[in-house]
Amino acid sequence: MTAPRVHVVDHPLAQRALCAMRDKTQSAPLFRSTLHYLSLFLVSEATKTLTYDETPFDASSGTLPTFSIRERIGVVPIWRAGSGMLDAALAILPEDTVVHHLGMYREAETLSTVEYYNRLPKSCHVDSVLILDPLVATGGTSSAAIHTVEEWGVPASRVTLVSVLATKQGLDYVRRQHPEVTVVVAGYQDELDEKGIAHPGLGDVGDRLYGTEL
């Protein structure tokens, strides 16, 4: 996870899932399951450059190699929306993967990011981090999360931002602030209104996940 660039997961099934998530009539249970499904593609792409060691073991048909991942991996979902991607990440990643949560929200008037929860340990004990943030609109929340992880002790080149959808403005902002970070998305678009809302986007992902839309 070291390549400093943006990866778009353009697999037809991933794109089909992204289109389904844009459907505003989709129920909360279906939205959750679609996000889980799409996150499997995204996390797979985000981890394809992990390094590993091969160790031989005796199988029923002879000696075969077993693979052990060298990196210690941390997953940091941004509450609330990022939690909808967490189960998919843990389904793919090694069993010793650790999870640390960040709680952030965007202040409505100024669009500035407020951090209200941080469960990163005092000392950094991982080699690389996946930050889970389904929607990168202005890029402020994602950038703030990356900054927090960097301050914790993970270099930018070992951080991957995993997102479903990003705007061009949001991606540009993240790239300016953190040029060495890898970004994995299913899609991106140009439109962002004066309130910092992506159109056509995904809506409020946290509300749609849990059926709490007003």
UniProtKB/TrEMBL annotation:
Keywords on record: Allosteric enzyme, Glycosyltransferase, GTP-binding, Nucleotide-binding, Transferase
CDD domains for the chain: PRTases_typeI (cd06223)
Cofactor dependence: Mg(2+)
Gene3D superfamilies with a match to the protein in the record: 3.40.50.2020
Pathway connected to this protein: Pyrimidine metabolism; UMP biosynthesis via salvage pathway; UMP from uracil: step 1/1
Domain Phosphoribosyltransferase: 8-212
The protein's Enzyme Commission number: 2.4.2.9
UniProt-recorded Gene Ontology molecular function terms: GTP binding; uracil phosphoribosyltransferase activity
Pfam families in the record: UPRTase
Family annotation (InterPro entries): PRTase-like, PRTase_dom, UPRTase/APRTase
SUPFAM superfamilies in UniProt: PRTase-like
Enzyme class of the recorded protein, top EC level: transferase
Family, per entry: Belongs to the UPRTase family.
Protein name from the UniProt record: uracil phosphoribosyltransferase
Organism: Malassezia equina
